[in-house]
């Protein structure tokens, strides 16, 4: 993946609102990208206490599928973990082509 501000990145996050609606508003799910696949999905650290009250395993699974869909669809819903901006593309080439 490629971030407009940070360059090549191997991790990104997606807003839980995409698949959990109000329940996951303001919770971001982070993941790493390895060989085009979403791996190591986790909730951001600041949401740990909140997730204790939910079925975190279930939501991590949903988040993994959502993130893979976002990757395949061009990363529109993804956010850069480092700069927190939605400036993520699948590749530098894709970014330069737009
Ligand atoms: Zn960035």
Rg: 13 Å
Helix-strand string: EEEHEEHHEEH
N→C terminal distance: 15 Å
The percent range for strand residues is: 25-35%
Biggest sheet layout: 4 strands, antiparallel
Helix content: 25-40%
User: Structural class of the secondary elements?
Assistant: alpha+beta
Coarse shape: elongated
Number of helical stretches of at least 4 residues: 4
Low-confidence stretches: none
Which ligands appear in the coordinates? zinc ion
How would you write the strand order of the largest sheet? 5-4-3-6
What do the pLDDT scores average to? 94
Task: State the domain count.
Answer: 1
Report the count of strand segments: 7
Structure in words:
The chain has 4 helices and 7 strands, in the order βββαββααββα. It is elongated and about 45 Å long. The protein has 98 residues and is an alpha+beta fold. A hairpin with a 2-residue loop joins strand 4 (28-34) and strand 5. The chain has one domain (2-97). The strands form 2 sheets. It has a 4-stranded antiparallel sheet. Strands 2-1-7 form a 3-stranded antiparallel sheet. 32% of the residues lie in helices and 29% in strands. The structure holds zinc ion (ZN).
